[in-house]
Specification:
Helix content: 10-25%
Oligomer: single chain
Number of domains: 3
Number of helices: 8
CATH architecture of the largest domain: 3-Layer(aba) Sandwich
CATH superfamily of the largest domain: P-loop containing nucleotide triphosphate hydrolases
Strand content: 15-25%
Amino acid sequence: MAGRRYDESDVRIRPGRGSRPRTKQRPEHADAEQALVTGVDRGRYAVLVDADGPGERRTVAMKARELGRERVVPGDVVDLVGDTSGDEGTLARIVRITERRTVLRRTADDTDPVERVIVANADQLVIVTALADPEPRTRMIDRCVAAAYDAGMDALLALTKADLADPADLVGLYAPIGVRVVVTQTRADGTIAGLDDVLGALDGRTSVLVGHSGVGKSTLVNALVPDAQRATGVVNDVTGRGRHTSTSAVALRVPATPDPTWVIDTPGVRSFGLAHVDPQHLLGAFADLAAVAEDCPRGCTHAADAPDCALDDWVAQDPSDTARAARVDSFRRLLASRLGTAD
């Protein structure tokens, strides 16, 4: 039997990967809907479409390829395309991250060049600290305050377990640097005394809560947001440290406030690196000192050992004005935290 004769019509050429012309143009996604990112879990993002609006609905989204390695975090306002109905099994795409008002970052330590974005668009940083069990760590508080000021955020110090220790010393330490302080304690029936003061400080704002494990952060969040069901832990009697109970950052709406209010709960931290903070930016949080420092010699670090620093001259002009000395000491304490020279 004679074999089949082939001709050019029998040839099939598969196009190579480079045969399709590439373009740098990207879709405009003019029909995208805005949404608030409330949580992140293994490449999937919990988002709230039309947050606080009449069409509010929850859905799940993934990050579009064109965003590359750009990190999406709780508090981000993003543009969504695809199925944004929120029906079971649907998945939308995040195609844009809108401009962030504030960005809270931290590094692993003061020498780590890699900074990690924690949350976006928060108005204030709430530093949750126990007055005892575990003992308060002022260096940690200082570092968080420095990070908040660098990010353009307000700082709020929430002191818990006031039934175990007097808050007066910490209040006196942080009031001079503009840190608002609220004090709480858990009553015998499980309710929290001082919760109204906390709600008043949070009302109408987006606040991110940070703190060591075991300081009562999750307990406070559960009181603010009864449906949150954040896991709570205990403090180890040997190490004095708490067990990590919150495993991921999540944005939660606070229901008992007149204005729309959000808190972003974060996992407990043991350190707060400030490698990303420019020491010169800290001075901007002290408007009165910044004006005085304009008379400093060029290159002045404003630290306690800085020669001919105008801040020292300003304090010396009126030794009876203890508020001046307190302000300078407070600023230099934050500066020392950034420079790693704190005691």
